Amino acid sequence: MTQISSTVDFLSLVHHHYYIQWSRRICTLYANPLMNIYTNKDSDTLMTLGSLLVDWLPDLFRRTTDNTTSATSRSKDDDDNCGGNRTVGSDIVEPISETYQWIVAGISRPPLTIAVLDLWRNLCHPDHFLNIIVLST
Amino acid sequence: MDVVRSSNWLGSIPIVLTLATTSLGTTMMPHPIHVMVNRGTLLHVGLRDAIERLQKFAPATIHSGGMIIRKEPETSQGDGNSHRDEEDAEARDSKLSYGNITETTKKWKFPVCWFEDEKTQLPLRWHIFAGVLFDILTSDQTQKQTHLSSPQYSSSFPRSECRVPWKIRLHFSSYPSSQLLSLDDNIRNNNGNLSEVWTTIERSFKNSLKQALFLQTGTARAAMNMSKHIHTRLWEAVVSSNYQLYQQINADLQAKPTSALQLLPVRLYLDSKPPIQRPCRPGIREGIVPV
Predict the structure, then answer these.
(1) Model confidence pLDDT, tens digit, residues B223-249
(2) In this complex, is the C-beta atom of A99 within 8 Å of any C-beta atom belonging to chain B?
(3) Which residues contact B105 (CB under 8 A, 6 or more apart)?
């Protein structure tokens, strides 16, 4: 924790540590080398964030099967969030409403195709729990 | 992989902490305190210095005992003792050093206090990490900020709408027991003393960690084998937001071979409701995990 003596100092710190910049930095880091930790041969065995959300919140997320989708297809959300290209199977998970949000460790709407294992390895909290936030309101 | 984790640890949230008027024990309202709090810490831990400073302005009964206070502030008592209390607080401040935070915090009796989000006026759950609370309560603004760079949003959402810094109110009275877990659960420790706030928070973290270890390994052995020394070092790393220290200890704790991983410790927060926690296997098909 940093003590800040004046409002001016504080605001400058806010600019330095600007929350979203930090979030994007993490996202960029996450997108490049780390998305390829596990090779494609394992990808169809991994539980993805989308699969988890469909299983746990079936009222908010749905699974749509698209046979034309390849393993490297990218959704709009992936593009918006510097997401990776790891896809599990041909199932596409999407929120029932576009207004829903899901956040992991400050990263808003990470790609639903990311493996939960990858998220847990990199973004779990000090108590080893991965906290996923879904906002439907 | 370590780069991401360490970067994640460095993430901080700018917070403006103000004292609630109902907890004011002096005639003068203190200035808000601006603090950067690590995302991976708990609010009571990350804001302990600010709490100690604002405690001087609370009713005298609070900073003398540190036990739960449910009565309204009495201005006359606060005025009489404020000078002496300020001196005591300054003496405590001089002892405070980041090198030995845990010891210092043990000397200072942590008061029972709670935080309230100024915007939503919701009491903040003390056992949830600051970053998670921030994400839950400031989501709308976060989403707007994320798209600020897009031309289509640049005019719709001016930066003045950003919810940074996060405004929080500190209360020393009227603890909302119906909405928050108790901070002084009246459990006697080994010395026969009543459990203190700091101990309660530490124990909550420890229990959560043990739960996660059990899920990962499928056995209680890892949690039971965790020595007090290891836990103390981990807790110190969380308190001081020291990733290097945390990683030294955690490297042996967190299941290394993925094949040994039974379940993933995952909590899902839907809006402000209590978290959902279910068994989460790393692989879709049971028993299959990547090597």
Answers:
(1) 888 888 888 999 999 999 888 899 888
(2) no
(3) B48, B198, B239
Q: How far apart are CA A72 and CA A88, in angstroms?
A: 10
User: What values do phi and psi take at B17, rounded to 5?
Assistant: -105, 125
pLDDT digits (tens, 9 = 90+) for A5-56: 554 454 444 444 444 444 444 444 444 434 443 333 444 578 899 999 999 9
Query: What region, left, alpha or beta, does residue B255 occupy, with left being phi > 0 and alpha being psi -120 to 50 degrees?
Result: beta
Please state, in angstroms and rounded to a whole number, the distance separating the CA atoms of residues A28 and A49. 18
Chain A residues with CB inside 8 Å of B282's CB? 46-47, 115-117
Q: Which of A40, A41, A35, A19 is nearest to A107 (CA)?
A: A19
Q: Are strands B33-38 and B12-19 parallel, antiparallel or unpaired?
A: antiparallel
Distances (CA, A) of B138 to B135, B142, B272: 5, 6, 11
Q: CB–CB of A35/A118 below 8 Å? A: yes
Find the distance separating the first CA and the last CA of chain B, reported in whole Å: 16
Q: Give the H/E segment covering residue B16.
A: strand B12-19
Distance CA B162, CA B140 (A): 9
Q: How many CB atoms lie within 10 A of CB B54?
A: 25
Q: Is the alpha carbon torsion for B4, B5, B10, B15 positive or negative?
A: positive
Q: Count interface pairs A-B at CB distance under 8 A.
A: 200
